[in-house]
Amino acid sequence: MTSPAADVPRTILGVVLAGGLSRRMGRDKAALRLGGIPLAIRALERLRPQVTALAFNGAPAFPGLAPDIETIPDAMPGVFGPLAGILAGLRLAQSRDIPLVASVPVDAPFFPCAFVRRLLSALQETNTVIAVAASRDTLHPVFALWSSSLADDLERFIAADAKRRVRGFIEQHPHVVVDFTETSDACEDIDPFTNMNRPGDVEMIERMLFGAGTIKP
Fold it and tell me: Which one of 64, 83, 158, 187 has the fewest beta carbons within 10 angstroms of its own beta carbon?
């Protein structure tokens, strides 16, 4: 599952989270195509050069996954939201002696190309255990860099906390927020953490990207 990433200064596992129920979308978001490419593949390939290893928290037989990408189910049985996928990534990282995990959701493939590097720099500068992205005065808790040492604590949190909010877990630990407001590698009108939750979101984003010349119809 290791991928070459000469520009990554530390060993980091990248995890694309696609284990949700996609209730608002009404279908599996991972397979939705943007510019002809499934969102899952877009997110994985966007993350690939930023990390040293890749994992996909989603359907075990998702078509088109590269052979070096390990598929991991949620770490706990039941429907516990993105924290269960993050925990699966932390457990996999621990089993590989990987100190850090970068998480991104499957439905937001425009995160910056320097996303992981900036989070890592902030983590090292502040001696914290979580670095989380923000833009335009909005926190994006699932876009984060996590110390794999948090796995046991996260498992206890999932078991004990009724809401199981990602933000809630982050707030219980030393963390740093990194502002990406001025960063957009897709189109200046698209927030780098824009996600696609509802039918029609993909078509709207495609029109914006076509207009900017980022992808072709």
Answer: 64
Instruction: Classify residue 39: in a domain, yes or no.
Output: yes
Domain hosting residue 47, numbered range: 12-212
Q: What is the CATH number of the domain that holds 118?
A: 3.90.550.10
Distance of CA 168 to the CA centre of its chain: 17
Q: Nearest Cα to 60, choosing from 52, 51, 70?
A: 70
Q: How confident is the model at residue 14 (pLDDT cuts 50, 70, 90)?
A: very high
In a domain, 160, yes or no: yes
Q: Is 180 in contact with 193 (CB distance < 8 Å)?
A: yes
**Residues 6+ positions from 193 with CB-CB distance below 8 Å:** 108, 110, 111, 133, 135, 138, 140, 143, 180
Q: What is the pLDDT of residues 61-73, one digit of tens each?
A: 889 999 999 999 8
Distances 176 to 71, 162, 168 between C-alpha atoms, Å: 29, 25, 14
pTM: 0.86
> Domain total for the chain?
1
Residues in the chain: 217
Residue 8 tokens, joined: 């990554």
